[in-house]
Amino acid sequence: MTPKRSSISVLIANPHSMARELLMGALKRHRHFNVVDSATTSHEVLDAVQKVGPNVALITATLADGPLSGFGALRQIRESCPDVKTVILLNAPERGLVVDAFRAGARGVFVLSSSKFKSLCRCVEQVNAGQIWASSSELSEVIDAFSQLAPMHVVNADGMRLLTKREEDVVRLLAEGMQNRDIANELKLSEHTIKNYLFHIFDKLGVSSRVELVLYAVSSTKRPPTSGAQSNDLESETAGGSEIAGKLSAEAIRSTGTKSSRSRGRKPNA
Known about the structure:
- With 270 residues, the chain is of the alpha/beta class.
- It has a domain at 8-136 and 224-247: 3-Layer(aba) Sandwich (Rossmann fold).
- 45% of the residues lie in helices and 12% in strands.
- The chain has helices at 17-28, 42-52, 69-80, 95-104, 117-128, 136-148, 165-175, 180-187, 191-205, 210-219, 250-256; strands at residues 8-13, 33-39, 56-60, 85-90, 108-111, 134-135, 243-244.
- β3 (56-60), α3 and β4 form a beta-alpha-beta unit.
- α4 (95-104) packs across α10.
- The radius of gyration is 18 Å and the shape is elongated.
């Protein structure tokens, strides 16, 4: 007998009543989604999150209290309610905002204008399951931005560093697309030592794959926002979906040196 699927509680934040009602109505038609509240401003988002504690919050980039105020809501949720998983909703693909979204704490980026509602449902399910949702081009942008920035310091909400200097070096080189052997050569260590470093880092940060590690580092690193980055059109969705959710495109895997296993119950891929 197939076990009954538990419902996923969802908060929707959108400043436009028609768009908000359409999203709420569409999700409510699926029995495994439970829309518990809605919001129009970042303040309402934080109040609702603290009040009802949704599993997933879908937040439009610009809310009623100002341009890109949705990013402020992401940061507040990450600091005050870290168990709530967030997805930023973009009306159109804007490359500079993708890095900012993950840095602010988003677990997914979803472009409404180029995606189908069925994909949004899948996005909510995968993010709720602890996975990352982004297209291969969006993920590549994050990796590129990360590798071009100054040495990073992964910190918690109180500003305390979570990794040692050597562990940060390993993460930085991994983000540049290096394999374990290359990292070992660069740091003049054995490949076995690098693998041990990665296992310790995975354990410290609560991640289970190299992709999650890089995105975690991006979202937890104190750096200026990169929304001024040059903008190009993102790749549109292809048949079968180009999202990164449980698996990566071959191109993303090759460019980042990541592994595709994302199950929390498995031994992490180092």
